[in-house]
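Duplicate of earlier report; Outer membrane protein TolC input re-posted below.
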Amino acid sequence: MNNSMHYKIFFSVASLFLSVLSTKAQEVLTVEDAVKIALENNFEIKIASNDLKIDQQNLSLANAGILPNLSANVTNNNSVLDTKQTQLDGTERELDNARNLNLTYGVALNWTVFDGMRMFARHNQLKELEKLGDAELKLTILTKISDVITTYYDIVQQQQQLVALDTTIIISNVRITTATNRYKIGKASKLEVLNAEVDLNTDTTAFLRQKELYANTKILLNQILARDPNIDFKVIEEVQIDENLLLPDLMILAEKQNPQLQAQVINKRIAELELKQIKGDRYPIVNISSGYNFTRSEASLGFITQSSGRGFVYGINATMNIFNGGLQNRNERIAKLQIENSQILIDQQKLALETQLSTAYQTYMTNLQLSKLEAKNEEIAKQNMDITFEKFRIGTITTTTLEFRTAQINYINAKVRNSNAQFQAKISEIALKELAGNLTFQ
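Output:
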């Protein structure tokens, strides 16, 4: 068996062995599983979810002031006094330690039946605040999903580069074996063997650095998933890129689904409802009250020593602001300016969104072209590596082993650039879908 065949078999068997060993030792984490874990565990998502639940709890007729208020009350006042009274006829009566009791208890109902429609505007505002909380939760989820998918495919890239560097170590080992054999039969100098050993050490150093980066990126993903940083796992080996994204479709989706734009639209509705509430101060406030009370009083000295009563009480109260120093007009002007600002923010957000989508789409298209170019470049570098190795094996590289090392480095660099290009194309895809509010798990 010639050295070329030995090189190819050794490379294939070693790669297969490393792949099988790694798969058995580590659980393969898919991007779908990573996203599901993040949705369940991520702290920021939990907080945003609880904030939405708070908004949902706040949405009630009672919180808007529409429902009446029913309360129970008890009042019990007692006194012990040295009392002296002068009657109409001039006679005087005195009693030391005279005891007095006043007891009142019952139920009372108070209800604002009209307040210039502010209560209904407030209820609608609570509905919009719930929608705002939902939009903020969607934004948090979208951001975290983007972080998970980006970090996941960064690990895929790191894993691919780790395999590439592992490949160069295999090639360097074969090179040392070949150089040693050539040295033993007198076809090469000791310098050739030493150069091969130095290059192997260089490749090993790069491999260890990449291994460290790979491990640290996995720890980062575990942090985003809010789980034990030391959980080990393996990711998929290939990056699948959606090459069918169209800018007009993304623009339409973004206008409908982008959470930041939705939040600005909701904020404008909230500002409009705030103006309605302020305008309600121009109208009277009408309250009705009713209740059932029991009263009892006792006195040790006086014409009446004991009295009691029970029954219904009711009444109506109306108040209206006539003049408050022009504060009403000022408040309304400020509320109108807030609405105007809200519309400006919507326009600003739309323009920023269109700009981000347009620039991100240009980057996406460029990265797609680069990914295809680098894939072809890797194939060419691989062919060059195979030809150069064969020349090295049969000894036709007569200058030094520089040509072989150059071909080796070019091949590894091509693999790394291809991996980077695939990752950047995927990142561009993720950014576009995130802006459109349509980020999927792939």
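The domain at 3-41+115-283+324-436 is CATH 1.20.1600.10 (Outer membrane efflux proteins (OEP)).

Merging into the original ticket.
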